[in-house]
């Protein structure tokens, strides 16, 4: 929820005022919802598919925390309000999900992320196949995109070979 996020942001800023805070997820997509965020505590908002946008954001950040994108960047960058601290960054939707390399989690202590068992997320699709007239997420959920089954199986096998502790994948 937005109130929880704002509370969490205050706690993070109090603990580490010099750290860059990046917020993403479905709630960032809509201007009206972003207006509820305490944008004085957020440095960057990743809008929409985050894989490429987050990569370009992290590689484009200079030592001083200012964003400097390369000329070939596919990112759209703006502020909802010129007085906002938070900068919005968005790339086009990823149409070929198989073009995105799978996460390898090498910098994470995955044992800290157990849910009673060792679980890893696997993205095999994005979007929705239904066309419900009442759906408010239509801009987020279309078009439906999916990975090839053999690539999902390869990713599962790769993760299992990397760690014998994995016993569940979250789809």
Shape: globular
**Main beta sheet, described?**
4 strands, mixed
How many separate helices? Answer: 5
Chain oligomer state: single chain
Structural class: alpha/beta
Low-confidence stretches: none
What is the terminal separation in angstroms? 23 Å
Proportion of residues in β-strands: 5-15%
Tell me the series of helices and strands, N- to C-terminal: HEHEHEEEEHEHE
Taking strands numbered 1, 2, ... along the chain, how are they ordered across the largest sheet?
Answer: 1-2-4-3
What percent of the residues sit in helical stretches (DSSP H or I)? 25-40%
Number of strands: 8
Kindly state the mean pLDDT as a whole number?
86
Work out the radius of gyration: 18 Å
How would you describe the overall organization of this protein?
27% of the residues lie in helices and 13% in strands. It starts with a helix and ends with a strand. 14% of the residues are buried. The protein has 171 residues and is of the alpha/beta class. It has helices at 2-15, 31-34, 50-60, 138-141, 149-162; strands spanning 22-23, 44-47, 76-78, 87-90, 119-121, 125-126, 145-146, 168-170. The strands form 3 sheets. The protein has a 4-stranded mixed β-sheet, with helices on one face. A two-stranded parallel sheet has the order 5-8.
Give a topology summary.
Blueprint lengths: L1 H14 L6 E2 L7 H4 L9 E4 L2 H11 L15 E3 L8 E4 L28 E3 L3 E2 L11 H4 L3 E2 L2 H14 L5 E3 L1
Parallel strand pairs: 1-2, 2-4, 5-8
Antiparallel strand pairs: 3-4, 6-7
């Amino acid at each position: 929820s937005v109130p929880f996020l704002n509370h969490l942001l205050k706690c993070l800023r109090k603990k580490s005022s010099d750290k860059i805070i990046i917020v993403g997820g479905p709630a960032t997509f809509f201007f009206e919802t972003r207006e509820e965020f305490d944008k004085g505590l957020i440095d960057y908002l990743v809008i929409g598919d985050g894989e490429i946008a987050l990569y370009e954001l992290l590689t484009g950040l200079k030592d001083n925390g200012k964003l400097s994108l390369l000329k070939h960047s596919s990112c759209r960058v703006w502020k909802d309000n010129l007085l906002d601290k938070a900068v919005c960054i968005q790339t086009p939707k990823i149409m070929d999900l198989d073009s995105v390399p799978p996460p390898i989690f090498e910098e994470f202590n995955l044992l800290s992320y157990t849910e009673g068992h060792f679980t890893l997320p696997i993205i095999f699709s994005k979007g929705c196949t239904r066309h419900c007239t009442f759906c408010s997420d239509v801009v987020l959920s279309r078009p439906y995109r999916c990975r090839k089954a053999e690539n999902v199986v390869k990713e599962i096998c790769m993760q299992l070979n990397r760690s014998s502790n994995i016993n569940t994948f979250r789809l």
